[in-house]
Structure formats: structure tokens, C-alpha cells
Amino acid sequence: MNLFTDGFDQAIDLLMSGNSSVYSAISTTITVSSWSLLISLLIGLPLGFALGYYNFFGKAILRTFVDTLLALPTVVIGLIAYTMLSQAGPLGEYNLLFSQEAIIIGQIVLGLPIIIALTAAQVESVDKRLYSSLKGLGAHSFQILTATLIEARFGIMTAAMTAYGRIITEIGISMMVGGNIKYHTRTVTTAIALETGKGEFVTGIALGLVLFAVALIVNIALSMLKKGWTQ
Amino acid sequence: MSILYKLQNIEQFYDGKKVLNINNLTLEENQIIGFFGPNGSGKSTLLSILSFINKPTSGDISFKGLSNNKLDLLSRHSIVILPQNPYLLKRSVYDNITYGLKLRKEIDNLDQRVEEALNLVGLDLSFSKRKWSALSGGEAQRVALAARLILKPKVLILDEPTSGVDTNSAQLIKEAVLQAKQKYNTTILISSHDHNWLNHICDQRIALFQGELVQSGSVNLLFAPWGKDENNNLVKVFMDGQELVIQNSKEKKNDSVVMINSQYITICKKGCDHMINQDTLMGKISSIHQEPLSDYLLIDFLISGVSFVCKLTREEMQEQSLLPGDKININIDTSDVCWI
């Protein structure tokens, strides 16, 4: 139990002391995870809408494939991204390995299936009268897309929160393609792994609590936004 | 009057089942046209095709001479449909009403136009601030109608607009529809089970049954359940015990639908000895109005709650001094009815 109480105390101390490596890890975590989520949303929302809205040959197979990707281990994604980004890989010429961009690419692969699958499910569950009403008012495909996503905003926000939770807490991708370089690609999760490996359990727990606090702040902000929409 | 819609050989299939089959139908501009028929007769399917929301499986549909695939955005935007049980966006009433205008990028004088549209459906401007979730069923239906009326459409298609709403809302919706016709010269296509309403306001009535056009004009449809008489003919047994025997119907199935043209119905209020026989029924006049584009008067009457319509000349009307609420004797000649 002392580990937790000491960890909590040390988390406060770490944050209060302005420890540059800790703040660097927090900053990197928030930066890469925010970009990953943003890009995942930009790509995933239209694809999720298309998957949920349109009926086409092979839709069921595609849904199963996307759903399967939800269970993809982060270390496997990291391994694939590493292979792609290493000098011998097809994207090696861009020298992205062990950069924040590499982590973002890997995290997009992690977040995209979540956004696509959950958006498709939300679009499928939207009241079917919405489409006939929108079409009846003269809306074309893009206007139906935006109106549907706005109608399904609560569910899509849940999808975004789920994806963000998975992205911010992953370690496999950040470790494999980020390289855990201090002040550069070290995230909170890779820092926890490092500290734990060194036997600094209290520091690890402190960083874990910091990660939890970041996730809590994001969720509170989104919940307040949701409450504002419903009132 | 110019032709607005022309439909030829329209067929619509759902899951391999034919739900609509219209060989030829022409609808004229600036009219109120009513569609009626039992549930599943294809009314909603036909209206969705007329609104260009759905394309028919096969056949040609043209609007003002332009076929479906040549229809420009302006023409498409001039047709709006209020579906059965319309969906309100999870936004304020104001946002719902202005949504169609914003789609059309018409964003001038929104406040004034919202107020005008709300007034048309009997709501005041204070409603515009309400959330979608704070409306009753009747209010939601009126807001949905206001969202269509604000667009001042050339064609307004209403799919059972008064079903499931309270009497007051239904009345306000009916008044709003007439106002739209008067103010904007809108062609209005309505499907409804409210035969009285359709009889009152429609220039043309079109009956549908099992996806096919039955007949336009003043017809009466009688549906199952049927009883049988001693000769095995089908008998319509009304709630008050009166019976109408359909002649020559021994071979007909128990789920048959019979169509009786109003010309086969004779009514009489006074001096009726010459017509009364064992088959004469009793009913009550519910309304009297002029048949559009003709000199005949249409008499709506009820036999134990079942609505019928027949035609009389003005002279016959005056001779009988008929008024709504009058009890009448009714003879229905069933020897030459149409089976559907």
C-alpha cells in the first residue's frame, strides 16, 4: 500500500518540482496522442460513415475485418510500423524511425479501427427516419454525412474517448518506433516501463498517476461538452 | 394547367416483392392531390418516388418534362416531403426550421422567416428556442411541417401528416396546408386515411391498392372482414348490426376488397317509400361539399362509423334539403361492383 501512497506523494512532488524530463514525457504524450486522435478522426469518421450508411458487396466481410483490427496488439502494430519505417522498409527513405511522427503513424493504425468501427455502429443505429427527412429536405450526400455525424455526436464522442484512451495508454508502438529517447520520444508509458525496469516502482506509479490525471482531465472536458450539448 | 409529373411503367420491388406497379399516371400543377388506400397499398413508396428520394426499380418518371436523371438541383429543391413520423434533428426548433434554408444557402432574414413559418402552423416565435426533446408529438409534427413550409416549395408532399397527432394539431396542420397552397401556389400531394379531409380539399383523389392505381375520383372501398349469407355471398356486417350483401360474390375470397363507385349509391331523406326495401341501410350525413372541377356535390355519410361518399346534383340536393347530421336511407347496388 505504501507504494501507492508514496507514488501519489511523489507524483505531486514531481509535478510541483517542474521536473523537466517528466514534463517532457507528459508533453510528448499529449502531443503525439492528440495528433494521432485528430488524424484518426479525420480519416475514420468519413470511412465509418460510409461503412455504416452504404450497403455494398463485401460489407459484412469488411466490418468483420475492421472489428478484428480492434484486437490488434500494440506491440504487433509497433513491429509492423518498425518494419515499414526502418531503413530496409518501404518508408525507410523518410527517416521517420525513432521520431514522434513514427509514434503518431503507429497510433493512427491503433486508433483508426476504433473510430471506424464505432462510428459505423453509431451511424447504423441512427434513426432511419433521419435519412428520409434529410433527403426530403434536399440534402445531398456530404450534407447527410455531416448531419448524421452531428446527430450521432454523443456516440462518436464516446468513440473518440475510447480511441484516445487506447492511444494514450499504449506502450508497444511508442517503445518500438519511438525508441524511448529522453526529451524526444519518451512518453509517460515508456517512462513508466523504464523506471519500473530500473526498480523505481514509486516513480513508475507516480507517472502512472500523472497519466491517469491527464486522461481524467480529457474525459471531464468531453463530458462537460456533452452536457452542454444536451441541455 | 400544365403537367407536373408523368409516370410510366413504374415498378418498385422490395426484397423481390413488387410493391408498386403504375402503368400510367399524370399529375397536374397547382392542385391538391390525395392518395388513399389501406396500409401497405404503396402510398408511401409512391410518394418517396415522387419526391425523388427513391428511384423506382424500373419505369420512367418526369417532373415538368425532365426525367429523373436530368433533374437539376433547383428542381429537386423545389420538391419537399414531410415523411410519415418525421425526424427532428437533435437541435433547437430554430435550427430544425432553418436547416433546409441553410442547405440551400438561403440565410437572409432567417428570424423573420422562422416566425412566419411558425405562425403558419399555429406556433409563436418563442417556440424557436425550444430543444427538440421539449416538444409534444403534435408540436414536433407542426415544427417539421414549418421546416418544409419555410422553403416555399413548388411541390409539398405530405405522407399521412395528421396520423398520430391530437385533434388540435391535426386541424392546424390542415389549415397550414391550405395556406401554403394559397400563399405559395404550392402543388400538394397528400396521403391520408382521413377520407373526409381528402374529399374536402383535394382536386383529385387517387386510390391505391396492393401497389396499383385503383381509380381516381369518388369511390368507396370496403375491406375484410366479411361474413357469409345463406347463398354464400360475402356480407359486410356493420357494428350496429346492419348488413350489406355483395351480390354474385360466392367465389370471392374472405380477404377481398370491393370498390363501389359512388354512382351506384342512392340516398334519400324524405319521401323514400319508393326506394326502401329489405336491403336499405340507414346512415348519417357527415359533410357535403362540391366535387372539384364538376357541378356535382359529394355527400359524405357514415354507416355505423364506416365512411362512404356519393354524388348528387345541386337540384337533387335542394329537393331533399340535405344537411350534415341528417339521417338518410341508403341503397347500394352491389350487382356491378369492382373487385380488387
Describe this structure in words.
The complex is a heterodimer of chains A (231) and B (340). Helices cover 79% and strands 0% of the residues of chain A. Chain A has 231 residues and is mainly α. Chain A has a single domain, classed as Orthogonal Bundle (MetI-like fold), CATH 1.10.3720.10. In chain A, helix 4 runs parallel beside helix 9. Chain B is of the alpha+beta class and 340 residues long. Chain B folds into two domains: 210 residues, Rossmann fold (3-Layer(aba) Sandwich); 122 residues, OB fold (Dihydrolipoamide Acetyltransferase, E2P) (Beta Barrel), CATH 2.40.50.100. Chain B has eight helices and 21 strands. Chain B has a six-stranded mixed β-sheet with strand order 6-7-8-3-9-10, with helices on both faces. In chain B, strand 12 and strand 13 form a beta hairpin. At the A-B interface, helix 6 and helix 7 of A face strand 6, helix 3 and helix 5 of B.
Summary?
The complex is a heterodimer of chains A (231) and B (340). Chain A is mostly helical. Chain A has a single domain, classed as MetI-like (MetI-like fold), CATH 1.10.3720.
Secondary-structure element pattern of chain A, one letter each: HHHHHHHHHHH
- Counting DSSP H or I runs of 4 or more residues, the number of helices of chain B is 8
- Tell me, rounded to a whole number, the average pLDDT of chain A: 90
Q: What is the CATH topology assignment of chain A?
A: MetI-like fold
What gap, in angstroms, lies between the N and C termini of chain A?
42 Å
Radius of gyration of chain B: 22 Å
CATH architecture label name of the largest domain in chain B: 3-Layer(aba) Sandwich
* Broad structural category of chain A: mainly alpha
User: Which series of helices and strands of chain B comes N to C?
Assistant: EEEHEEHEHHHEHEHEEEEEEEEEEEHEE
Low-pLDDT ranges of chain B: none
Number of strands of chain A: 0
Q: How many strands appear in the DSSP assignment of chain B?
A: 21
**CATH class term of the largest domain in chain B:** Alpha Beta
CATH class of chain A: Mainly Alpha
Note the main sheet of chain B.
Answer: 6 strands, mixed
Counting DSSP H or I runs of 4 or more residues, the number of helices of chain A is 11
Strand content of chain A: under 5%
The geometry of chain B reads as globular
* Backbone structural class of chain B: alpha+beta
